[in-house]
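PT: before anyone asks, these are the final sequences, not the draft ones from last week. 2040 residues across everything. Please model them as a single complex and drop the result in this thread when it's through.
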Amino acid sequence: MSLLKAAIIGGGHIADQNHIPALKALKDQVEVIAVCSRDINKARALAEKYNIPFAFDSAEEMFNNEQKPDLVINCTANNLHYPYTMQALENGCHVLCEKPPAMNAKEAKEMADLAQEKGKVLAYNFQRRQSPEYILLQKFLQQGRFGEVYHIKANFLRRRGIPGWGNFTNKAIQGGGALIDLGVHVLDLALGMLDYQMPDRIVANVYDFIGKAGGKGLKGDWDPEKFEVEDACFAYLSFPDNASIMLSSSFALNRQEEETVNLEVFGTKSGAILRPLSIFTEVAGELADVSFPYLTETDIQLQNTTAFVDACNGKASNICSAEEGAILQEIIERIYQSAK
Amino acid sequence: MSLLKAAIIGGGHIADQNHIPALKALKDQVEVIAVCSRDINKARALAEKYNIPFAFDSAEEMFNNEQKPDLVINCTANNLHYPYTMQALENGCHVLCEKPPAMNAKEAKEMADLAQEKGKVLAYNFQRRQSPEYILLQKFLQQGRFGEVYHIKANFLRRRGIPGWGNFTNKAIQGGGALIDLGVHVLDLALGMLDYQMPDRIVANVYDFIGKAGGKGLKGDWDPEKFEVEDACFAYLSFPDNASIMLSSSFALNRQEEETVNLEVFGTKSGAILRPLSIFTEVAGELADVSFPYLTETDIQLQNTTAFVDACNGKASNICSAEEGAILQEIIERIYQSAK
Amino acid sequence: MSLLKAAIIGGGHIADQNHIPALKALKDQVEVIAVCSRDINKARALAEKYNIPFAFDSAEEMFNNEQKPDLVINCTANNLHYPYTMQALENGCHVLCEKPPAMNAKEAKEMADLAQEKGKVLAYNFQRRQSPEYILLQKFLQQGRFGEVYHIKANFLRRRGIPGWGNFTNKAIQGGGALIDLGVHVLDLALGMLDYQMPDRIVANVYDFIGKAGGKGLKGDWDPEKFEVEDACFAYLSFPDNASIMLSSSFALNRQEEETVNLEVFGTKSGAILRPLSIFTEVAGELADVSFPYLTETDIQLQNTTAFVDACNGKASNICSAEEGAILQEIIERIYQSAK
Amino acid sequence: MSLLKAAIIGGGHIADQNHIPALKALKDQVEVIAVCSRDINKARALAEKYNIPFAFDSAEEMFNNEQKPDLVINCTANNLHYPYTMQALENGCHVLCEKPPAMNAKEAKEMADLAQEKGKVLAYNFQRRQSPEYILLQKFLQQGRFGEVYHIKANFLRRRGIPGWGNFTNKAIQGGGALIDLGVHVLDLALGMLDYQMPDRIVANVYDFIGKAGGKGLKGDWDPEKFEVEDACFAYLSFPDNASIMLSSSFALNRQEEETVNLEVFGTKSGAILRPLSIFTEVAGELADVSFPYLTETDIQLQNTTAFVDACNGKASNICSAEEGAILQEIIERIYQSAK
Amino acid sequence: MSLLKAAIIGGGHIADQNHIPALKALKDQVEVIAVCSRDINKARALAEKYNIPFAFDSAEEMFNNEQKPDLVINCTANNLHYPYTMQALENGCHVLCEKPPAMNAKEAKEMADLAQEKGKVLAYNFQRRQSPEYILLQKFLQQGRFGEVYHIKANFLRRRGIPGWGNFTNKAIQGGGALIDLGVHVLDLALGMLDYQMPDRIVANVYDFIGKAGGKGLKGDWDPEKFEVEDACFAYLSFPDNASIMLSSSFALNRQEEETVNLEVFGTKSGAILRPLSIFTEVAGELADVSFPYLTETDIQLQNTTAFVDACNGKASNICSAEEGAILQEIIERIYQSAK
Amino acid sequence: MSLLKAAIIGGGHIADQNHIPALKALKDQVEVIAVCSRDINKARALAEKYNIPFAFDSAEEMFNNEQKPDLVINCTANNLHYPYTMQALENGCHVLCEKPPAMNAKEAKEMADLAQEKGKVLAYNFQRRQSPEYILLQKFLQQGRFGEVYHIKANFLRRRGIPGWGNFTNKAIQGGGALIDLGVHVLDLALGMLDYQMPDRIVANVYDFIGKAGGKGLKGDWDPEKFEVEDACFAYLSFPDNASIMLSSSFALNRQEEETVNLEVFGTKSGAILRPLSIFTEVAGELADVSFPYLTETDIQLQNTTAFVDACNGKASNICSAEEGAILQEIIERIYQSAK
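LR: through. Structure below.
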């Protein structure tokens, strides 16, 4: 089998630390041929570091190069997910796009439509799906161990975790705050336990008190003057089959723990928490708690990139699909609308 | 000051264990003159045990007796809260009625209206308001230590706590299940942190999977055939000032702890959990956690009865008022409506 | 159904605290008609305390009384298990005999033979079979959750628990020490996990160093001069099907915990420890530990007496049978022989 | 004093990581002159890495070289312990041989005999003797703090620790499984507390259920098809002076902990556990537990190599001697015979 | 041996709960013949409750009664220790006097002198000497396990433990506050580890900030207006042989624990803390910590009364003697003087 | 602003690891121009390692060099603090001198006087003042949260921490032992909470039992023959305003923990412990404990060097001043005098 040719759009930390190393680890299936960044110096530095043949400061130029990529990793800022992904699809590439899918539902829908039209894989990089805990949750679900799942509490909460770097508080670039950056992860995991349905009822609130007031930061110091997004978002989702999700996300909230990322899943036969993975059920007529003390941490980015490459090769894969991404983005949009 | 004459309607466990002992402990202010139960034997047994002059099996008879009560404790089944409270108010008595206020919003509204018309105190027995932890939460709120409270998580959750006795699973008598029996307590506490506003948006779901399926019980065995109420209720309340509440209650849910009754309060300056009472805040520019290791447990029923008697005597009091009860009942009704 | 008539032989603590209360609790099935003790005062005191019609100081007299017992509880000293049980069987009674079955294998074999000949139930009071943990272990075994059980560690170990009262250190009365008084319990439980087979190989050692040296006692002070039994016994049992048991029992051993009573069970699919009951297994391809945090303690003597009465009434029952008792006693005898 | 010339036979991991570094650390006493491996590339790589003058792929060649070794480290596979050790002794070398001593008792006996005949030191690399905990246990024993030691429980147990690499499951190369690879360590330690006596009674069982069934591995994945050894071995040893040992070892067993390596020692005056080292005794008439919170971890391989070099230099040493090795190997053989 | 006749002076809680029950438990050696209280009703109530022949409201009358006591328990207020003890000694009685010995050094000296002159036992009720932990400390001291003890930290510290009852804050009655009521206990224990020497250097400070300011009380509410004593006292004692004591006592101090009563003892060979009793020493050249997990709580008042009766009967005893009491009182007086 | 020129006197570990790196980190304010050590090789090695222009073995030479330092770090042995600091001041330099200030009070007084005369900054390197916990303690003090501080327990205690290297046990070089090396740190912190007053009463004792007896060492092995200083020092300080300090320091003491460095501060409104920083106070009428779970460790040497440079630049700074150092040294001298 010939190697898939891969290109990277985006020259930041996540390209350097996550995506390129993952692709390089899949060298039996993928060859990285180009990296593209608006800052040509960044592109060249990465190309040199990772021994990548081409570096560009223009996607157009990259796609016009003689060596054409088969797949593209789009790890640019949130507001560039749409244009670069569309461009890559138009150029006949599979695309693995960073999360969130886009800035709004319309963009995500167009991206999914174009992928389908072009017959290409478009996937989103929700790599937390690959944790051994979530893989097991999914396996339990498929084995029917939960019975019917009817309620989920999904939390991604930080006490004082407004990032003091990057564009995390810039609404025009990010499209939002705690929900679109953090909550989106656990929302994806929760939806994955509920057949990725579209909810029929959503109510939500957003807040920015602490972000705008300033104070002690545990992820660097942020500038309250430039804080334009929500520091906390709470939402309730109710589904046509009567399932429900309570979603809580925060950059900053006056709570005890520094950070909590967890799912509580409630089913008719069993319930579970994601971390540390525990199942609450009945065994032989008695209430039983099941723990998994020997789960092995894996490289979840590598697992997710592998899942994407599998999809490109036509194999079954648990990657977040273009359709799922469109549903997710629409839910996010509706949450923000409800919170206005 | 002459003693207030008190009568009890309802001859069950809660009369025997909670209300009569509390009244007896207030013997400098209250004299218990009568107990009334549809089962005259229960009434007589209580009268003998507590040295109460009169025992009746008819409230009408009781009110027609020469010795007229000044105040009445209504500790009958939920579906009798309305008729007996109305009768007592008509007879010119102050009333302390067990929770929930009534079976629906209309009843609770009429009860509040009649109390106002008659100029009598009508109060509901939400005794958890009297815990030292909640008293302190309220004090912090009034001292401005929280700043503005904008989100509350209110939980009354049991793993397998469907009562195997009484009428807790009978819808006609109880009016509902986990929400009206358990959730109502923490909802009252949460509303008390938010000026007892009426929410403008409510969305909710109820479930009865475990109740109808049966299984291991931690509060006796229940009959799944006769399980008519919800075993779990989740609701989201959003308020005109943008505050929000996530309310979770369950008789049965596949979770780890046997029972959790707690409030998480998030304010602009500080947050808190109710039990064990802890405040999460900033002190001198650093994140600080404040604990209260020496809170003394008190007899919360006695405290609540005292609050009621204070109200009867025209004193300020933190008892749940007739107006608050009407708001609470309307919210419960709207939660159930949303969940249909 | 008419009531079974019960008689007690033995007027000691165990009659007073365990057996008579259990029989009294089964008053719908059993009527206690007589108590017999060589000390007539003890017999009379129990008869009065429990409202039992007859008190005797001679078993012969008791059996010759007009009111004949249907069943007998033999709770005398170890060396009287054989004669009184034989006498009771000869008199056509079912017998529940205290543990150990007898002083040696020959006695236990004769007791089992006579019971069979007479068509009566003879059972031994190994009440630890009735703990909720062991009941579950048995259920798991029958459900095949262990696969094949091939090794068991059975421990009943005390640091300094030589009883300072009774006849526990008197060899002529007790027949032995730590093994026959303590180890016998966990040996019975272990054999119950292995089809109560007879081992084909046994090797063992007994010790009496601490018992004879004296020292600090945690169950009263004992007299080293009168210490005639083993203070510790270690044995290894190997079975024809290749299963094995490591059995450890001690009255006194220089170890950390005051007392340990436990079973470790190793099967091909799962392993377990008895207390706190935990299962070590694989779930969905991952190593999993299962705990049972809500087991309810029960009155194990009442459960065992019930099992005995069920057996008397011809029902299935998990009581230790005469045949099992004979096997157990033979193993004990072979352990002591190996240790000589 | 002139330096001892050392040669290594065996070019594997243990030579590279343990033996050569230890010898190098003793550079004031030892000079490493040669390394020999059937794979000459391995020998050469080690020679280069550690600056060793000679590399060979034949032991014969090595012994015929002009530079003759004074001592040899035999760290080959188990089935080569005998031939290379015999060859080294024949060539007048002291030998430190890896554990187990040999494949059977006859080999170990011949090795000890030849060492004696040649007047050379033959020792086995039971480096766990050098842990600070065991050194202290030995010191307590010699000071009489235990009184007489009469029972030891020796455990080397893994939950799922069948090595997924090397020859650990190959019977022809290893000679056995959990006993000969793991149990042998704690058996050596236990015998060291009992004057290295020969037991007069042994009974044992071995199992291979999990090894042959396959499943989750915590030390890599193993091939159940090629699993030829025991995955668990339980044995009971009784000694002429009435002492006893319960020995348990497993590569795989359905238990809680991932790995347990421990000794419980029971003496007439005190007992102990090895890790964390604790003594259970009486002080001033009260039961006392003694802990040692400040023991310093040492490099036990370096300590053991030092002990061997001390022995070569005629100094007293706690190294496992040829005679002890022969006893140990005979016990292992008898355990396997008993288990057949 | 005829029974010793005992009389009680003082009709308060401590007579009722401690001293009379202890004397009654020693009924083979002591007969309680009289109780005396300035409040005759208290005296009569105790006499009736405990079946004591005589009740008086005057000590003079009691001593003039025909039945003469052999020994007297003086459990009156601090300012009455001196007059009643002197009177009892004058009347030829042995005396067990509550702590502190007296109001000042002069009184305690006269009491000791008179006891010696009369040849009677005078002892003080420092019952904490009888705890199993302190008994062991003393045994270790006598066995030489500490080597030479050179420094002790003695603490009796409460966070907010000003008693809300009794006369504890009244200087005229009590003679002082935290030092004379609480610190005196641990000072007695510390001196007992140092041969009850008289220090040659003392420096101290007393405080009453919290007592006079008021606040939350954990032993009832006290009246800051009537707070006349020290709420905290810190003192340093240096002895002629160079040993030293740091003594800290408080009724109220802004610290974490509610109450700490402890001794840290530092000797040349070992150190110790009293509770939980632990020894810090070297064993076999390694630092070792020794704990005593099975110490049995005893009735320390009964033990101390027994020690007093033993002394009356001329037996050796660890009771606080008149001479020790005089030394202790002088030290207390010097501490208060230093603190002025 | 031009750079300050810095010179280092002392070529040991503390110059290499602490002072030069701190100065280098302040490269925008300071330029290191010279290092001076009596061992010219050390000086040259440091100069090369840190790219420092000049290396000297004579301070005189250094001060006579054309490039004159503006500030000097004196990190020589204790007995050289005085001469080199005086020389540096005479040469018109600011000086940061290692602790303790000097060998006796007279030296420290002269050093302070000369600094004042020369108008130069003389400061001592008590870098523990810069821990985030102590910075907060000071902030609380200034905010009045403690009310009046009246008692402090200051401890720097090691179990067996006599350094096995350097000159720590040499009296002529060090001037003392545990007090001058360890206790001086916590004494400085304690005085900083009490306005750096001079106490009016001091009593103290010193000991050298363990140091002279030898034994297990946790900081290397020391030579008991050459142990000339105190291994423990206990002192009590009382101040004119009635505040008091209990100061305990040890190199070696038979206690549990390996090392304790802490302050307990008792004020009229609140108390505190330094590590982990906790405040004990009243909030809303209830006793409250405040913890600070997110304090960030800082580089305290860098912070202290910064404070010194700030002082040199005329800015406010919390550095230990020449006057404070003189007070501290006088207290140390008086403690040693008291202990003689």
